[in-house]
Design goal:
The protein has 129 residues and is mainly α. It is built from 6 helices and 2 strands. A hairpin with a 5-residue loop joins strand 1 and strand 2. GO terms for molecular function: DNA binding; DNA-binding transcription factor activity.
Length: 129
């Protein structure tokens, strides 16, 4: 199938499919006319790529993990270093979440402190009709 058909069948834009190819995640054959030609297995591969992206993995990580992917769900064969890679990514996400929670709290502190000052300095602004 050509790239347009793969795009229609997977719901993934053609520019994204080309990007996956540039990252080594998809390997289409080339027809005599130079067009990309994908086998029927490309649909499953694109589905796997999309699910792994949804899990927060980078395309580099996906390139490492993709050979271990089986089926359209979160099914992975226990390839060497696979769990270490997944756990490292999870740890990174946990760290990022912790940072976001701290940032959120700091921002809330600024908002609440400023709101208290507004109600103290400008009581008329705080009046409700």
């Amino acid at each position: 199938m050509l790239i347009g058909e793969l795009s229609r069948r997977t719901g993934v834009h053609t520019h994204q499919l080309r990007y996956y190819e540039s990252q080594g995640l998809l390997e289409p054959a080339r027809g005599n006319n130079g067009y990309r030609e994908y086998g029927s297995d490309a649909i499953l591969t694109v589905t796997q790529i999309r699910r792994l992206l949804e899990a927060g993995l980078s395309t580099a990580e996906i390139g490492f993990i993709l050979p271990c992917a089986t089926g359209s769900g979160p099914d992975l064969e226990p390839c060497p270093d696979l769990l270490d890679t997944l756990r490292a990514r999870l740890h990174g996400l946990d760290d990022h979440i912790d940072t976001l929670v701290r940032s959120r709290q700091a921002l809330n502190d600024y908002i609440h402190t400023t709101e208290r000052r507004v109600s103290t300095l400008y009581p008329a602004c705080d009046a409700t009709p």
